[in-house]
Amino acid sequence: MTEAFDQVVATLLPLVRMQRERDSLRAAYAAGRPYPHIVVDGFFDEAVLDRIVIEFPKRDGRDWITWDTTNELKQTSRGIGGLSPFTQLFFMQLCSEPFLEHIRYITGLPDLVLDPLFHGGGLHESVRGGWLNIHADWTKHPALPLTRRLNLIIYLNRDWDLSWGGDLELCDPASKTCGARVAPLFNRAVFFPTTSETLHGFPSPLTCPGNRTRKSISVYYWSPDPEALKEGAHITFLPGKKRTRMRALLRSLTPPIIFKAGGALLRSLRGNKLRAMGKSR
User: Fold this and answer.
1) Whether the model pTM is above 0.85
2) Alpha carbons 166 and 178: distance in angstroms, whole number
């Protein structure tokens, strides 16, 4: 039984590949523009990610956080709580010492540690119309003396049509313009640092079909910092796209109950239209 469990755990992480390619990965990360980052395709065992997709909590009945503001529309899990045991095991392995040892070397951040609370991390999902405005992430941990230093995003979207959008945009901190795009394709991993200047997001609303969503895994890595509870940058958004600025204006002028009712009505009408199209076929 123990041997079988060890074999399962061994498939969760690309440790052999990371050991073999650690120098080239380190060079690629340092050379990333507009700021250091690295994008790696086919990084994990596909069967592992497929199982996470199969066990991805359904939208009905899950206790997730809904971020529906003037700067974003998405849902996130509450850390790894409520996720399947297999998914939780995968997250724990992403924070295990063998994996941390490699990413410390690749990123040049020698003191990276895990956050046992997985604050802000977990599974993320955005539906049609969802977006995340360009922003610099918060760095202050709400409960522990830690400063956030590094993001890892793993995309879970098989057969994703590039026309649907959802590309992660990495923006130059000086010009505030996009310097690199990362399409959210299945088994694509991206590492990038968390600072007040590492601007990123996917600011254009998704145009994927109603039965598709943009799914991802997010893990944040930290450094010990006794002063982190006193200091730290909060999230800062840039002005959004024309469409999302208009949405923000309408939201500011409309009572919340009416705004939400209108959104629910539009979603209902969109769903009825899709069902009618399905029947016509």
Assistant:
1) no
2) 14
